[in-house]
């Protein structure tokens, strides 16, 4: 079996004639050059041995545009993949987002498969391999283009370009894996590391829905540390889905009845719930920290009023059915900045609930506390990402009288029955609004 694959690899590279990103003409087929035969540096071989990796074990590559990184992952003896090498991309073409049409000079994003036939040891760009764009997803969505490569020579017109030294190592990883029996390796190309925080930063980008789809495959790999099985139906990526007996995947046709393996479904559901929570928190925190100063003060003032209202309600005092309204924006904006900010930060800091994990069951979660800001000031929900829940705007107002938020202990010296905010220590008074909002969000 290994001999047949090795022969296929030799035949494939002998037939490879694509010159690189520009498709700058065909080359004479020459014997495989020394640059394509150079072994990996001994330092990398030592690292592989330490991680339980064989020289000929399968590989996977991940590309991140924003971070400017190409990663090589290699399979360990336990079957899982681990990162073995990371290279700074010398140049990549275009901007964040997928490739759409021939000539847009855009480096592609998505899940691609590289076989021995796509390897070119005689490339005009030192060494190269074709990503396989357009793949089934790209074709189902009418996307066009050709000669999209990872190559050397540090020049790009729609490709991912490396230095020649880097490309020799990347090539060696692929060559050794093919010689070891791997028939194809997966390349995952992303706009950025698909963390909840990064997804929140780009939630208004036109490519957001496409990136949400890629994130499913990204998360599958993060969970399993194995390349996800990739299919396409209804012109959408499907990851690790198993079609029902008698059905198959048609890239342009309707999706068949399908499901995830049970153990993976459980792991993914748990992982997604954590990611959803982190995404909502990141969206709301970004909204708070990016607001103009006058609006931020309004938010702090309302938080103080709401905290006071909930304390009085919890004591059984007669209060309005809803929290009091804010002072006028004009009044807040005209307040003395240092005086207003210092006073309100100290007041709110004393009333902010503890993080959800440490808050008593009878208290309102911190996310609901933040969501009590008036509707015109309410942090944006995760509407652009419908699977990600966000706190209800009126969570605190809708709470029954028996449910109270965590409140500071009343000052026993207050004989008049009216609570006073505990004097903040000088250090606490100097806390930044960012730190305060982190407490509000439960961090």
UniProtKB/TrEMBL annotation:
Active site per database record: 151 (proton donor/acceptor), 159 (nucleophile)
Which domain of life does the UniProt lineage start with? Bacteria
From the UniProt record, give the pathway where this protein acts: Cell wall biogenesis; peptidoglycan biosynthesis
Q: Does the keyword Protein transport apply?
A: no
Q: Which Pfam families match?
A: YkuD
| Record's keyword terms, sorted | Cell shape, Cell wall biogenesis/degradation, Peptidoglycan synthesis, Transferase
Record-annotated L,D-TPase catalytic domain positions = 59-190
- Asked if the record carries the keyword Cell wall biogenesis/degradation, the reply is yes
Which InterPro entries does the record cross-reference, listed alphabetically?
Answer: LD_TPept_cat_dom, Transpep_catalytic_dom
Query: Which portions of the sequence form the region Disordered?
Result: 315-339, 402-428
Q: Which family does it belong to?
A: Belongs to the YkuD family.
- The protein here is known as L,D-transpeptidase family protein
What is the native source organism of this protein? Chelativorans composti
């Amino acid at each position: 079996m290994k001999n047949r694959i090795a022969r296929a690899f030799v035949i494939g590279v002998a037939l490879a004639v694509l010159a690189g990103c520009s498709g700058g003409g065909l080359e004479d087929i020459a014997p495989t050059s020394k640059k394509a035969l150079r072994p990996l540096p001994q330092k990398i071989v030592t690292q592989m041995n330490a991680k339980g990796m064989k020289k000929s074990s399968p590989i996977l590559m991940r590309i991140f545009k924003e971070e400017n990184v190409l990663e090589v992952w290699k399979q360990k003896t336990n079957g899982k993949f681990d990162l073995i090498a990371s290279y700074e991309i010398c140049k990549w073409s275009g901007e964040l987002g997928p490739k759409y049409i021939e000539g847009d000079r855009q480096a592609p994003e998505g899940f691609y498969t590289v076989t021995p036939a796509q390897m070119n040891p005689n490339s005009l760009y030192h060494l190269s391999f074709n990503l396989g764009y357009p793949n089934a997803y790209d074709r189902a969505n009418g996307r066009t283009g050709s000669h999209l490569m990872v190559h050397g020579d540090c020049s790009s017109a729609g490709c991912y370009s490396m230095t020649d030294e880097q490309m020799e190592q990347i090539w060696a990883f692929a060559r050794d894996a093919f010689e070891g029996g791997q028939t194809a390796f997966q390349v995952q190309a992303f706009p950025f590391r698909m963390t909840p925080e990064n997804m929140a930063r780009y939630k208004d980008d036109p490519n957001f829905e496409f990136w949400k789809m890629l994130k499913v495959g990204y998360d599958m790999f993060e969970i399993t540390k194995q390349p996800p099985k990739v299919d396409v139906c209804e012109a959408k990526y499907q990851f690790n889905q198993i079609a029902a007996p008698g059905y198959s995947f048609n890239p342009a046709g309707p999706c068949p009845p399908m499901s995830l393996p049970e153990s993976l479904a459980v792991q993914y559901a748990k992982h997604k719930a954590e990611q959803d929570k982190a995404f909502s928190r990141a969206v709301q925190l970004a909204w708070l920290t990016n607001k103009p100063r006058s609006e931020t003060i309004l938010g702090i003032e309302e938080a103080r009023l709401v905290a006071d209202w909930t304390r009085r309600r919890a004591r059984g005092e007669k209060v309005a059915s809803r929290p009091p309204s804010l002072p006028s924006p004009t009044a807040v904006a005209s307040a003395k900045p240092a005086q207003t900010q210092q006073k309100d930060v100290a007041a709110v800091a004393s009333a902010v609930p503890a993080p959800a994990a440490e808050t008593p069951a009878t208290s309102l979660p911190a996310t609901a506390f933040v969501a009590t800001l008036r509707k015109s000031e309410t942090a944006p929900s995760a509407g652009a990402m419908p699977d990600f829940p966000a706190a209800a705007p009126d969570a605190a107002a809708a709470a029954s009288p028996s449910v109270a938020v965590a409140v500071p202990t009343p000052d026993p010296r207050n004989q008049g029955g009216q609570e006073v905010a505990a004097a903040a220590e000088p250090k606490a008074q100097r806390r930044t609004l960012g730190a305060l909002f982190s407490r509000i969000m439960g961090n």
